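Section 3.1: Structural characterization of target chains.
Under the original work plan, the team committed to producing a structural model for every single-chain target entering the pipeline before any wet-lab resources were allocated. The record below documents one such target. The sequence was received from the expression subgroup and is listed exactly as submitted; it comprises 73 residues.
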Amino acid sequence: MGSKEADPMAENHQALVWRKSRFCGNASCVEVAFHADAVFIRDSKNPGTAPLQFDPDAWRDFLAGLRSETLSD
């Protein structure tokens, strides 16, 4: 559902600009990076591992669900 097979940009994910929440502090967090054709997600504890890759539309839908609290457990 929105997740895609890794493309060449995912293989070079270290070159992406990674962001994490300002609420993260020193804890382990999820980081996000945006590319023209994909949104990448990785665990900040393991930045060298391959990130998950999502379609930008799926990422927008996910965020909209969080904001509207329509996502279920």
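Helices lie at 8-11, 56-68.
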